[in-house]
Structure formats: C-alpha cells, structure tokens
Amino acid sequence: MAEVEYDSKRSLRDQGIISSYEQLRAETARDLARSKTELARSHLERCRVRAPFDGVVAERWAQVGRRVEESEDSPLFRIVAEDPPRARVDIPEERLSHLTLGAASTIEASGYPTSVPARVIFVSPAVDPSSGTAAVIVQAQSAGGAMRPGVSARVRFHGLAAFRHDAFRVPRAAAPDGAAEGTEATLLVVDGTEVTVRRVKVLESRLGSVLVTGEIAPEDRVILGPPAGLKPGDPVVAVEEAL
Predict the structure, then answer these.
(1) For the segment 142-159, what is each residue's pLDDT rounded down to a tens digit?
(2) DSSP per-residue string spanning the chain
(3) Which of 21, 117, 132, 179 could form a disulfide with 175, with the two C-beta atoms 3.0–4.6 Å apart?
C-alpha cells in the first residue's frame, strides 16, 4: 500500500498537481513501511528452528502450541547426523604420542558382522586428570552399513605396536596402600566365583588411579576396596560398579 501510494504521489508531482512536500511524506511512509517489513521478516526468521547439519529426527520433545523462548535450555529435538558414523574412545595418556590425525583404525560395532575402516579426526589437546585419558574421535570412511547411532563399538588402531595390552589403568581403590611408582603390588580379581591374585608393577600413581603392568589382562575384574582378610580362593560374587 505504501509503495502504491508513493508511486501515485510521484506521478501527481511530476504533473504539478501536488507539492513536493506531499511526495516527500509518501516517500517517508514508504521507507518506514519497508523498515517494518524487514524487521518482521527478521523476527519470523528467528522463529524457524533449523539443525546445524543434515540428519533425521531421532526424538522430539516439542509439542504443537508450546511456547518456546530463545533463552530456554530444554531441548526440542534430537537430530542424528546422516554423515559417516563416528566413535569416541578414551586413550591413556602414555599412548597418545603414537596417535596422529588421519591414523588408520577400524570400528567394530556390536551386532554388525563386518568392521568399518575409519580415520582419526580428533585428538583432545587436554588429558582428564582424574582418569589419565584423553578423548579420541574416529570417523568411518563409509556409511557403516546403516550402523545405528549410539551402538557400542570397539575401535582398533592399525600399525601401532604401543597399543598392545601391556599396561592398564585401574582405580586407586583396587591397589593396596603404599602402591607407589616403581613398586611391586598385588591386585585381587574375580576369577569365576572366587578370588585370585594378579602380581603387577606400578608404572604411575595418581590420586584416583594407578597404571600397572604385569599379570593383569583386559578381561580381569579387579576388586575395589577389598576387605581385610580376603585371600585367594575365597568365594565371591562379582558386582559391577560404575566408575
């Protein structure tokens, strides 16, 4: 309407029928209407919710008619990216020097018969002091055979001899008091339904964990805070504890 009114006033002014002042008023009204329109478009654009990447909606919490504020922290949707799958693993700090961006690896997901080749795309620049590990992210080189997001997986790094299971980090509660670096220690583990001993050497001692090498194996379940008097051969029932 403001555009039409301005065009009309300009035509009349060109014919000398109205004054320049009336044309100026029409022009000002048109410019003001343009500004209001652009502001409305901006407000409308801020009402659109877009994901920062292509994907599919895995969960929806938003409901029709629900009022949503920009400052609100509660999520509206969970979007699963359609990009090749990624896996995150926590690597002990003593092995980080052997990892570089682009290093070859393999993702083996639970329930999937074939493994997927992958590459390291991220190595955390910081180490978590409580666990002595750093996050490493690998990305599959293919779609992963429709691998479902969120499945548990095992990541194998290729060509890195340092990744053999020759040292393990265990909770401080599993190590005896006085287990200092360079000393020998014994760990109590669950072997079936009874207690057995693993003799190890302490490579590093931290506030919450110790790094050990020796008779311990990846599948061993260490006993945290063993009670006094517990000895090899005693019957036990394993209870997993979340760390």
Answers:
(1) 765 567 777 888 888 876
(2) -HHHHHHHHHHHHHTTSS-HHHHHHHHHHHHHHHHHHHHHHHHHHTT----SS-EEEEEE---TT----TT--S-SEEEEE-SPPEEEEEEEGGGGGG--TT-EEEEEETT-SS-EEEEEEEE-SS-BTTTTEEEEEEEESS-TTTPPTT--EEEEETT-GGGSSS-EEEEGGGSPTT--TT-EEEEEEEETTEEEEEEEEEEEE-SSEEEEEES--TT-EEPSSPPTT--TT-B--------
(3) 179
Do 109 and 98 fall within a single domain? yes
For residue 174, what are the domain limits?
165-243
Last residue of a domain, one of 163, 192, 220: 163
Quickly tell me which residue has 């920062």 as its tokens.
52
Which residue carries 């110790």 as its tokens?
210
What is the number of structural domains in the chain? Answer: 4
